[in-house]
């Protein structure tokens, strides 16, 4: 079914959040064999903002909620099940000045008749000292997503920002926290009057005017927010367990700057109520063109619109090359399976990838090959992105190196002994010696080169 690399694609979708995957599902079911370029590190992570969310309780169809990364795994599997081809990489360049459009990715050029831009927006951060340490351990960019986290229950919480989002989130968080502090950098709120009034009238919210965040402190989890006054001098220290940024978003439109009409804030301008951009055949969906609603469900809906509009545009210009689907009903979706924990009975000394402390102990002591020890947790979205890349490296190496996965929740003691405080963390050992450690998602090539280096030394 896949078009050859020289062929002109019908539709390329850039972005793999709810908008991009929904667009791919619709285009695939229209037999247009779309190509989905997920993005990898540019503008957040593949899968979009839901990958760094815990429970999604407001996406219809999941009455008991679903973890954000699991929802995105399902959307992607659904797109693939219907014939979407996937490239897991960042787009390097786009040329919309000539048709077919061209896209540079992984060093090669792909040409496409229609393009759906679903690159999303990244929540702004402050980058204060301590932020990296407490990110996802008290600090979040989305109160609506993460507010109900158990650690925030009956704790003091804070929101930074003075716009409608900050006000809405502060009010929302009063449902969970014992008290909410709103940190506003000026002497007034930017939010609409109605929203501001709700905040100012709420006895469970204290507004701290003319305050900026200085730094964060705590232990394993955030414990305190150190504020600065208008002159940049140390002011209050608030004993908060949760801190939520609501300081705006930046749309991921770097690739289309100078090529598509953007608004003053950098969002793609689309036809009101539709996905059409200033260039025919280029559709935009999700947060890259939406500074208002920014919900998974609204992004998915606009992805659907974009796919339908692309299909119409292709058929109007007689450009679509549809594929025949054999069999008519595709096989069941291929969802990522959890890694099984090796026991004494199931441990395989030659397995490329297995899980648990037993396998770690055995491989650590007995293997003379490079060993990747991968610390993950079930709700860690970046782990969902990074693990398949690590497995690919090990497959490419055909057994010259091995991997073992440790679930931080199942084996917290091992993680503590190894000095691991976050996921994903990857440690590379050779003969019991730690040779390299990575925190967070890396390019596959970085890990491959490190292992190649060890193997060259071994040879
Ligand atoms: P906004 O851009 O409106 O507000 C961002 C806020 O963050 C501003 O108060 C800004 O301060 C503050 N800020 C920015 N950078 C910093 C910084 N470095 N340090 C401290 N504070 C900072 O973004 P929103 O997400 O609130 O809203 C986006 C759009 O969505 C708006 O049009 C809004 O009306 C809409 N919206 C509507 C809602 C509703 O109607 N229910 C709910 C949520 C959003 P300053 O004011 O000083 O610039």
What does this structure look like?
The chain has 459 residues and is α/β, with parallel strands linked by helices. The chain has eleven helices and 24 strands. The chain has helices at 18-29, 68-81, 131-134, 143-146, 164-173, 193-200, 296-316, 357-366, 381-396, 412-417, 444-458; strands at 9-14, 35-37, 55-56, 66-67, 85-87, 91-95, 101-105, 108-117, 121-123, 139-140, 156-160, 179-183, 205-208, 212-218, 222-228, 234-238, 242-245, 249-251, 282-284, 353-355, 371-376, 402-407, 425-430, 433-439. The strands form six sheets. Strands 1, 2, 5, 6, 7, 8 and 19 form a seven-stranded mixed β-sheet that branches. It has a five-stranded parallel β-sheet with strand order 10-17-11-12-13, covered by helices on one side. A five-stranded mixed β-sheet has the order 20-22-21-23-24, with helices on both faces. A hairpin with a 5-residue loop joins strand 6 and strand 7. It is globular and about 60 Å long.
Structural features:
single chain, 459 residues, alpha/beta, five-stranded parallel β-sheet, 11 helices, disordered N terminus, binds NADPH dihydro-nicotinamide-adenine-dinucleotide phosphate
Topology:
Blueprint: E1 9-14, H1 18-29, E2 35-37, E3 55-56, E4 66-67, H2 68-81, E5 85-87, E6 91-95, E7 101-105, E8 108-117, E9 121-123, H3 131-134, E10 139-140, H4 143-146, E11 156-160, H5 164-173, E12 179-183, H6 193-200, E13 205-208, E14 212-218, E15 222-228, E16 234-238, E17 242-245, E18 249-251, E19 282-284, H7 296-316, E20 353-355, H8 357-366, E21 371-376, H9 381-396, E22 402-407, H10 412-417, E23 425-430, E24 433-439, H11 444-458
Parallel strand pairs: 1-2, 1-8, 2-5, 8-19, 10-17, 11-12, 11-17, 12-13, 20-22, 21-22
Antiparallel strand pairs: 3-4, 6-7, 7-8, 9-18, 14-15, 15-16, 21-23, 23-24
Helix pairs in contact: 1-2, 1-7, 5-6, 9-11
